[in-house]
Amino acid sequence: MDNDAWAGAYADMDHDANILIAGGGLNGTALALALASAGFRVMLVEPRSRAERKADDFDGRSYAFAISSMRVLEALGVWSRLKDVQPILRIKVTDGRPGEGASPLMLTFDHGEIEEGPMGYMVEDRHLRSELLNAAEDAGVTQMDDRVIEHHADSAGVQATLGSGETRRVRLLVGCDGQNSPTARRVGIRRMGWSYGQTALVCTIAHERSHQGIAHQFFIPAGPLAILPLSGNRSSIVWTERAGRAETVQAMSESAYLDELRPRFGSFLGEVSLAGRRFTYPLLLSIAERFIADRVALVGDAAHVVHPLAGQGLNAGLKDVAALAEVITDAARRGEDIGRPEVLKRYERWRRFDTMALAAATDGFNRLFSNDVGLLRGLRDVGLGLTNAIPGLRRALIREAAGLTGDLPRLSRGKRL
Ligand SMILES: Cc1cc2nc3c(=O)[nH]c(=O)nc-3n(C[C@H](O)[C@H](O)[C@H](O)COP(=O)(O)OP(=O)(O)OC[C@H]3O[C@@H](n4cnc5c(N)ncnc54)[C@H](O)[C@@H]3O)c2cc1C
After folding, report:
1. How far apart are the C-alpha atoms of 222 and 242, rounded to whole Å?
2. CA 28 to centroid of ligand 1, rounded, Å
3. Quick check: CB of 317 below 6 Å from ligand 1?
4. Backbone phi, then psi, for 153, in 5-degree steps?
5. pLDDT tens for each residue of 131-164
6. Which of 45, 61, 315, 354 is the best mutation target for the ligand 1 pocket, counting ligand atoms within 8 Å of the beta carbon and taking the most?
7. Concatenated DSSP letters for 215-254?
8. Whole-angstrom Cα distance, residue 184 to residue 172?
9. What average pLDDT does range 238-249 have in this prediction?
10. Staple 95 to which of 50, 103, 151, 374, CB 3.0 to 4.6 Å?
């Protein structure tokens, strides 16, 4: 059945929409777009206005996009609309100490080692957010500038109450409402994890020399420092410091901030200057103990928050989006009620293991590298050197980071729902 014919069959006039999504961050907006494109009637509830979310300096992040995430956006028709996409041609991982420069045992991943082309892409939040919003509007998503404050599920649907006092009745409520997910709290889903006591200082720099499409990850005792290539002679900096120190650095003048930053990565980019505002993000690990409840599913940071050192948080969120969209589209096509536990369990089973593996890997890496203990430093240098010497292992790691392994949903393979 094509989407139009099927949407008619699933018109469901007892409900105000088929699905209500709480939270219009990147994952909520991408999910709304995917579902609306598949023929569902979708409501997206987000307290921050569309004008605010489309503003150029709303969020300073730029994302390292895995190939699987690029394919999701391609399948949703957004990828070709994005400006300033920068391919990542090589990744260099180095153990180092400020002022001492890089350890000679460096791990290098090159895009020539896989057939799919660049191993990933850098995408700026400002472009991604506004293009996702535009596409969701074009696809007919009903957007409401409000927040969900309460909901009640019963055997036929779920009733959500908004801050304005209005109510909406739908089949399924999806919590895309971020790391403090009010949806998860309302249904009593507990979270496991901890604060890292670290903060990411994030900014964009302009530099004299070309980055040549190379992404750098320096492991410094206070935390990792990533220098990620953006279009032109610009790079995105994700500089992790212990929380107290980060507060001091963030309060510095622009020139003092740059004087702190420069010795951390040396002079290979020539003269550097700040291009835009500086941002901070406290870092934590936080995994919801369940991803589903009665007529509720959690997606993105509402389900899992990981350390950004591997640049995988949004990539994991977009896999949730692709998996949930596929599970409920297939269920609706079979005539199943999309909010039923047996449908939602398919989503949870699909995404839970992957997420736990990612959380363990990023947490382990951060512990191993964010310290200056001599023995650990020696071990990890040998580890980096060995990994570099074994091409098969390097290739496997590249494919994993590019999101090309495992049981990928259709959208993550670039196919339509
Ligand atoms: C420094 C840093 C760098 C990163 N770099 C990368 C990277 O390179 N690659 C990568 O893949 N990932 C990266 N990530 C992770 C990525 O940024 C997040 O995983 C992603 O932005 C989460 O999006 P989200 O939509 O799930 O949540 P959010 O962006 O937190 O959105 C949640 C939304 O819910 C709304 N909301 C809250 N309460 C309610 C309510 N009651 N009703 C309705 N709406 C509500 C909020 O207003 C908000 O807009 C990075 C993270 C950090 C901190």
Report:
1. 6
2. 9
3. yes
4. -100, 145
5. 999 999 999 999 999 999 999 999 999 999 999 9
6. 61
7. EEEEEETTEEEEEEEETTTEEEEEEEEEHHHHHHHHTS-H
8. 14
9. 96
10. 103
